[in-house]
Amino acid sequence: MTTLVDHARSMIACTIWADERILTAADGITGEQYGQLRAQLEHMLGTQRYWYTNWIGGALVEPRLETMVQARKAYAASHESLRSFADALTDDEWHRSEQWWKAYGFEGSMALGESITQVFYHGVQHRSELAVLLSVWGHSPGGMDYLEFLRESGAPLPPD
Predict the structure, then answer these.
(1) Is the CB of residue 61 less than 8 Å from the CB of residue 49?
(2) Pick from 5-14, 102-111, 114-123, 144-153: least confident
(3) Cα(146)–Cα(58) distance, rounded to whole angstroms?
(4) What single-letter DSSP state applies at residue 100?
(5) Is residue 158 part of a domain?
(6) pLDDT of residue 96
(7) 57: left (phi over 0), alpha (psi -120 to 50) or beta
(8) pLDDT at position 98, please?
(9) In total, how many domains does the chain have?
(10) In whole numbers, what is the pLDDT of the chain averaged over residues?
(11) Cβ–Cβ under 8 Å, residues 87 and 8
C-alpha cells in the first residue's frame, strides 16, 4: 500500500513530468503562439510557486515569462525546488495544517497534503487547456494522464 507521503511525492513528480511534456511540445511554436500561452504558463507557475513558498515559509515572486527560454528556465528552477521539497517530506507533514491564504484575508486552514493535491489538480486543468491549443497547432504533448506517468516513470501501477 502506498503511504500518504509516497502519494504526495508521486503527485509532485507527475506535475513536473506533465509540465515538461507541455514545455517540450511548446518548443517548436512561434513567438505569436507563445504569446497566446504565456499568461497560462505564468499562472500555472505562479500557483506552484505560491504554494511552495507557503509550504516552506518563503516570499512569492510572480513569474514573468517573456520568452519560451525564460519559461523553461523558471519552470526548471521551480521543479528543482519541488523535487527537493518532495524528497524531504515526512508522513507527519501530510497532515500539517496552516492558514495558507491568511495574506488574502481568508482564515480557513488546509492540510499540507490537501494543498499538494490542489497543486496537482490545478495543473491538470491548465495543462489540458494548453494541450488543446498546442494540439491545434500540430504540437500535441501526447498523453498526460496519471497512468501514463506511472508507466513512463517505472512506478508500480495500481492493482486491477
Answers:
(1) yes
(2) 102-111
(3) 29
(4) T
(5) no
(6) 83
(7) left
(8) 75
(9) 1
(10) 90
(11) no
Q: Distance (Å, rounded) from C-alpha 56 to C-alpha 121?
A: 20
- The pTM (predicted TM-score) of the whole model is 0.91
CB 115 within 8 A of CB 55: yes
Cα gap 144→1, rounded to integer Å:
24
Q: What is the pLDDT of residue 79?
A: 97
Q: How long is the chain?
A: 160
Question: With 90 as the cut, is the pLDDT of residue 23 above it?
Answer: yes
Cβ proximity of 14 and 120 under 8 Å = yes
Residue 94 is assigned to a structural domain of this protein: yes
9 neighbors 144 (Cβ within 8 angstroms): no
CA angle 42–78–146, rounded 5-degree value: 85
CA distances from 50 to 39, 55, 76 (A): 16, 9, 16
Q: Around Cβ 25, how many Cβ atoms within 10 Å?
A: 21
**CA dihedral angle for residue 107, residue 108, residue 114, residue 118, rounded to 10 degrees:** -60
The pLDDT tens digits for 72-110 are 999 999 999 999 999 999 988 888 887 676 666 777 788
**Full residue range of the structural domain in which residue 64 is found:** 4-153
